[in-house]
Design a protein that fits this description.
The complex is a heterodimer.
Chain A: H1 2-16, E1 20-22, H2 24-29, E2 45-50, E3 53-59, E4 63-72, E5 76-83, E6 92-95, E7 103-109, E8 119-123, E9 126-132
Antiparallel strand pairs in A: 1-7, 2-3, 3-9, 4-5, 5-7, 8-9
Chain B: H1 5-27, E1 35-39, E2 43-49, E3 58-63, E4 66-73, E5 82-89, E6 100-104, E7 107-113
Antiparallel strand pairs in B: 1-2, 2-7, 3-4, 4-5, 6-7
Classes of the chains: A mainly beta, B alpha+beta.
């Protein structure tokens, strides 16, 4: 039941943000694609459509700037974050909810986004990306002569 | 009415309370957050994943055996701001007045010094005879 619910949500995301979707949405639809790292965790993230592009917020607790990597490929943007913290010697684990696995998120777009002009800001475990829409796709006012 | 009716609700409730803690993290949208607890000889440590919180908007409180962490993640748009809260029972006796906290890379680490009587002690026992 949870899966159906989840799929419904994914679909909604896709229709809302037609040109920027998380890659695992495809996996839910049946066309399973092999992600690079199987043990990776998909971080919590938000996508907001703006007039001139998309604003993406990704939550990556425990990741330092040195562990963060953003790769722009043909029609996708991949974000990976390794956790830098290691359990110090002498510490015993009593209770655990977090994971050691790295974060990985792949966002696909149909090139309506100018990924080369992506602006990224990373602070306190939160990555904020501003993805501008391609010039060609921006709404333009056409004057009538 | 089935004599089990009451029991079923009780079981459901138990399941809910057990599972809700786990389910809350998946979406990242509930007001709970993942915590880890560690200890060494002198301290108990609580690590809480709270990305994007300003130090001024996080609050740590220790009352008796209960540690309560509350935080607000403020966003530019006020309706996107989010409040978190979680209480934990700390298994060891804590020197309440010496609790300290540190925030780094979106993780809050609370250090709770153990009271002397809670620390492991090495006692030499003379064996006679």
């Amino acid at each position: 039941m949870a899966k159906t619910l989840n799929q419904g949500k994914e679909k909604l995301t896709m229709s809302l943000f037609n040109s920027l979707v998380s890659k695992r949405d495809d996996a839910a639809a049946g066309t399973r694609q092999q992600a690079g790292n199987q043990s990776a965790i998909r971080p919590a993230f938000k996508v907001r459509q703006k007039e001139d592009g998309f604003a993406v917020t990704i939550y990556l607790p425990g990741v330092a700037k040195s562990g963060l990597e953003i790769t722009a490929e043909a029609n996708q943007l991949r974000i990976t974050g390794r956790r830098t913290w290691r359990q110090p010697e002498g510490w015993t684990q009593i209770y655990r909810e977090s994971a050691d696995a790295p974060f990985e998120l792949t966002l696909q777009h149909d090139n309506s986004v100018d990924a080369d002009k992506t602006e990224a800001e990373f602070r306190d475990g939160v990555l904020r990306l501003a993805l501008p829409k391609s010039e060609a796709l921006k709404a333009r006012k056409i004057s009538i002569s | 009415m089935s004599p089990w009716a009451g029991l079923e609700t009780e079981i459901d409730r138990l399941f809910e309370s057990t599972l809700s803690g786990v389910a809350g993290f998946a979406g990242g949208a509930r007001n709970q957050f993942p915590v880890d607890i560690y200890e060494d000889r002198d301290n108990t440590y609580v690590r809480a994943e709270l990305p994007g919180v300003s130090r001024a908007d996080a609050n740590v409180e220790m009352v008796d055996d209960y540690l309560t962490i509350t935080a607000v993640r403020k966003e530019k748009a006020e309706e996107d701001s989010f409040s978190f809260s979680r209480s934990l029972t700390i298994p060891e006796h804590v020197q309440t007045d010496k609790v300290s906290a540190r925030y780094e890379d979106g993780v809050l680490t609370v250090t709770l010094p153990k009271r002397e009587e809670a620390k492991p002690r090495k006692v030499s026992v003379a064996i006679n005879g």
